[in-house]
Structures are given as structure tokens and as C-alpha cells.
């Protein structure tokens, strides 16, 4: 995950126009802008490599709050970068959405534990990515589900938004 110097993984006021919050895109320019520095290219390629399954929060999937009231299919266009089953945490049921390139979004209303179990079953012993956002990663920490985390500390100060470690207990001290 990309994280600001002041501990945020998304800026304030997330919306359709600012999916990562005001200033949040600054967290990802290091791997989106071309040309990519050669030191960043290997990290970007590892970040984007195919996993067996992905778990993400509804905020990461899209800007819609409450009941599903439109045909939203994610931020990524017809072929999302995941190429694997993606389990989206939500409070509102939704039929799965199949996309090009092997990505199918499955919507899980039973909580993080249920999403992780479904991801494990789908991954067939391959790696599972906890893609975010901050709340989903905090739930993964609370469940003891994170074996490894890569944080790309970006020289950006957001000042507000979604903090990654608020309320997270020291995983080593367990």
C-alpha cells in the first residue's frame, strides 16, 4: 500500500471525482506516471503481479454508499488489473460482476472473516492480496490475517483522510 508521511492511505473527502480523496492520487504517482524510475519498476511489477484472490472494501470498489442504485462496475474499466476473484466487503448484497481478464467481483455481506475464507478457497493455496482500503486492512490486522505488508512511503503530507494504523494493535506483541 502507498502511505503518506503522515500515515494516510487516502485523503479527505473521497468521492467519484476524488476516489482516493483530495490529494490521494499523489500517493500513487510513483507507479502510474511514465517513465517509471527503474528502482520503482520492480516494486510496481510486484505490486501488480497476479494473486490467487483479492479482498477489498467497498470504498475501494466504488463511490456508491448505501443500497446499490446504479450499475457501477469499478474504477478500472472493462479489464481490472486483478485477473483473479475479488471479494468486496459490503453491507448490501449484490450479484457477482464478471469482467474481462478473469476478474470477478464477489460481494460479501458477512464480514472480513467470510471474505477471507472465500478468498482462500478461490486462491487454491496461492497468495491473497488485501488490497485495501484502510478499514479492510485494519480488519485484516485484527484478524491476524496479514503475513507480510509492503508500505510504499510517499513524500506527501495529506493532513487528513484514512489512516492505516488507527486502532491497530502491534501484530508482533500478540
Task: State the separation between the terminal residues, measured CA to CA.
Answer: 23 Å
State the share of residues found in helices, binned by percent: 10-25%
Structural category: alpha/beta
Q: How many strands appear in the DSSP assignment?
A: 9
For the biggest sheet, the summary is: 5 strands, mixed
Please count the helical segments. Answer: 5
What Rg do the Cα atoms give?
Answer: 16 Å
Runs in which pLDDT lies below 50 for 5 or more consecutive residues are none
User: What is the N-to-C order of secondary-structure elements (H for helix, E for strand)?
Assistant: EEHHEHEEEHEHEE
Describe this entry's structure for a reader.
With 174 residues, the protein is α/β, with parallel strands linked by helices. Helices cover 23% and strands 19% of the residues. The chain has helices spanning 29-32, 38-48, 58-61, 112-123, 134-142, and strands at residues 2-4, 8-10, 53-57, 85-89, 97-98, 104-108, 128-132, 152-154, 162-163. It has a five-stranded mixed beta sheet. A two-stranded parallel ribbon has the order 1-8. A two-stranded antiparallel sheet has the order 2-9. The longest helix is centred in the last third of the chain and has 12 residues, at 112-123. It is globular, with a radius of gyration of 16 Å.
Amino acid at each position: 500500500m502507498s502511505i503518506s508521511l503522515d500515515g494516510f492511505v487516502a485523503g479527505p473527502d473521497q468521492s467519484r471525482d476524488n476516489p482516493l480523496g483530495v490529494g490521494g492520487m499523489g500517493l500513487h504517482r510513483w507507479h502510474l506516471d511514465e517513465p517509471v524510475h527503474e528502482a520503482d519498476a520492480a516494486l510496481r511489477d510486484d505490486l501488480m503481479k497476479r494473486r490467487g484472490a483479492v479482498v477489498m472494501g467497498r470504498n475501494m470498489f466504488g463511490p456508491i454508499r448505501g443500497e446499490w442504485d446504479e450499475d457501477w462496475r469499478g474504477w478500472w474499466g472493462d479489464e481490472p488489473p486483478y485477473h483473479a476473484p475479488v471479494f468486496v466487503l459490503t453491507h448490501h448484497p449484490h450479484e457477482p460482476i464478471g469482467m474481462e481478464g478473469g476478474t470477478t467481483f464477489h460481494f460479501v455481506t458477512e464480514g472480513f472473516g467470510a471474505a477471507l475464507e472465500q478468498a482462500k478457497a478461490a486462491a487454491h493455496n496461492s497468495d491473497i492480496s488485501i488490497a485495501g482500503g484502510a478499514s479492510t486492512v485494519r480488519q485484516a490486522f485484527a484478524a491476524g490475517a496479514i503475513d507480510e505488508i509492503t508500505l510504499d512511503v510517499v513524500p506527501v503530507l495529506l493532513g487528513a483522510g484514512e489512516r492505516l494504523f488507527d486502532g491497530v494493535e502491534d501484530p508482533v506483541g500478540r
